[in-house]
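ARCHIVE ENTRY
Sequence with per-residue tokens
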Amino acid sequence: MTSLWAIRLFFLSLCVMAGYAVSQVRPEIIDESHGGWIAMVIGFGFGGLLIAVDEMLKGFSLRAFSATTFGLLLGMSVALLVDHSGLFEDTDPKVRWLVRLCLFLSFGYIGIILAMRSNKEDFSLIIPYVRFSPQNKPDNLLLLDTSVIIDGRIADLIDIRFLEGRIIVPRFVLKELQQVADSADPIKRARGRRGLEMLNRIQRNPRMEVHIHEADFPEEKEVDTKLVHLARNLNARLYTNDYNLTRIAELQQVNCCNLHEVAKCLKAVLLPGEPLQLKIVREGKDKGQGIGYLPDGTMVVVTNAQSCVGQSVEAQVQSLLQTGAGVIVFAELRSAPAAPKTLSS
């Protein structure tokens, strides 16, 4: 962002110097006693106008600009053909310029709209026997939201090379992360600081490129809506832990990945009869039951293990119960730890 404003200031200074140079080379343009100053103000205004246009076009991608240019050229070409077709040769010269203006404005606008609505496959109609194939592998853009950065598992997946590509973190997501880190609530503050630490960890990974994207959508107030729009514009995959954001992205046909759903798919599948080695952490609701947990957080209810709380035991899977919160495994104690020997007096 700093480098961008440095370029803008340099361009603005060039416009001011260009205005002064024009006033010295062509003094008849501004015939005033203070013509140099007036020309510098005009150059400053011209540069400021272009910078304002640049700000208004923030988020306007290079693909959209090239499509707009192509559509404008195509519309102008059609308008030129119609103008030279001979249909308006007998038109009054005073009206001819108005007809030509309407032709070029109308076909230019239609060309731009059609080009913006088209995709790359539509251009094969114009160049039917030419297919452009990229020489390099296309960028795999991974767009991260606040929840998945704070969660931290995305950093682990990157470290083991399960995910590869270019990380995109929007400026508005980074701002939201900083606001959470500066919150007065200690829990939110801890979550925000953890998110910043995870982001720094991802940036330190030499295999990954992290890009802070400057695009914003001022007309949208919700961060989720901005993320969906940015993912569609960049053709990026959105990574999140937010269930509602996942559903919104799916409804708008945006490629989205929810890490909670990925974690559910990667959980180990247990079958009745399989042995388990786990630690009993507390007593169960029913008499004689002990409760333990697998490494992925799955709760295991072990019968006849009430006396083994705090100890590691071997159990055998009996059945599984699917609930809204996950899977509960019911197992039977196979072998309890040996009781410690006591010294006889």
User: Anything to note?
Assistant: The chain has three domains: 2-125, 141-265, 275-335. The two ends are 80 Å apart (CA to CA). The longest strand covers residues 312-323. The mean pLDDT is 80.
